[in-house]
Amino acid sequence: QASSKMEGRSEAISKVCGMIEQNLILIGATGVEDKLQESVPEVLTSLRNAGIVVWVLTGDKQETAVSIGYSSQMYSRDTNLLYIRTSGYEETQRRLLELLESTSTGQMHKQALIINGCSMSYVLHPQLRGLFIRLCQTCQTVICCRVTPIQKSQIVSTIKEELKVMTLAVGDGANDVSMLRQANIGIGIAGREGTQAVMASDFAVERFEMLRKLVLVHGHWTYHRIADFILFFFYKNIMFVALEFFYQFFNGFSGNFPQEEFMIITFNTFWTTPGTLVSFTLNQYGGSRDEILADPAVYKHGRHDLTVNKKNFFPPTFGGGVPCRNRVCHPYDVQLGQ
Hints:
Blueprint: H1 9-20, H2 40-49, E1 55-57, H3 62-71, E2 80-84, H4 89-101, E3 111-116, H5 117-123, H6 129-136, E4 141-145, H7 149-163, E5 168-171, H8 177-182, E6 185-189, H9 196-200, E7 203-205, H10 210-247, H11 261-265, H12 267-282, H13 289-294, H14 300-303, H15 310-318, H16 321-337
Parallel strand pairs: 1-4, 2-3, 3-4, 5-6, 6-7
C-alpha cells in the first residue's frame, strides 16, 4: 500500500521500513569489491615517466577516488592534496584564486587536485576554466570524482581547447563513450561492463596492462615511421620534379622527359616503395620493445616533435633538388669548360 500511494510515497515507505526493521539480528553482509586490475600502478608510473599527464575521471565518491589514487600510486602519502568542494560560482572562484595564490604557477609541484562533480560544473564556466587550467598545470595529477558522462566529455574538450594538446581517453563502460569520442584517441577496455566503450573507441585492449605496450612501444614506433615516411615522400617527389625542371632549360622547354617512360611509370612502384616498406617494417626506432619499456623517457622524443620540425624538414627535403641540378647541369658545365 505504501509503494502504491500517489502522494507521500517515500515517507510512507520509510515509515513501513521503520516498523519492520526492528529487533533484527545482523548475521552478515555482502558487498562487491571494485579493485584495480593487475599492473595498474606500474602502467601509470611508466606513462608519467614518459611525460604523459594522467587524469582520473570517475563517478565514484571522493573517498573512493582518493583511495584509488593511493592504491594506483598516482601520488604518495607525502603529496599535498588540494580539494575543491564548492556549491556556488562565487565560492568556486574564491577557492581557485586561493589555491593559485598559495601555489607558484609555471611549474609542477608535488601536489594533486581533487575536485567533485558539483564544483566541476562551475570550473568549466568560460570565465573560470582559465584559472582551473592554470591550477591543474601545477599539479602532478587531477582526480575528478562524482562526474557525469557529459562532464567527462566537457573536461576532455576543455583540455583540448585551452592547452592545444593531444588527448587520450581510456574507459571500459557505457558512461565513458562520450569521453572516448571527444578525445583525439579513445581506447576501450573489454571488461565486464559491456562492449559499448570498445565499440566507440579507436583501439581496444583486453586488459589495462596492455596500455603500456600500445602507447609507449607501438605509439613510439608508429610516430617515427610516419615521420620518416613524410620526410621521404617530400624528398623523392622534389627530387623527381627538380630533375625535369632543370632539364627543361636545356631542351628548349619542349616538355621532353630526361627519363624513359618506363622509369616514370615504375618510379613509385618499383624504385621507391620496396625500400621504404622494408625499412619501416624491420626498423625498430628508439630500440626494441624491452628497451623502450625499460626506459619510457624515450617516448618524449615524439612528444617534443624532435623528428618532424623545421630544422629536420626543410634542409634534407629541399636538398633533393641539389643532386638533380648537378646531374643535369654538370655535363653541360664540363662541355662549356672544355
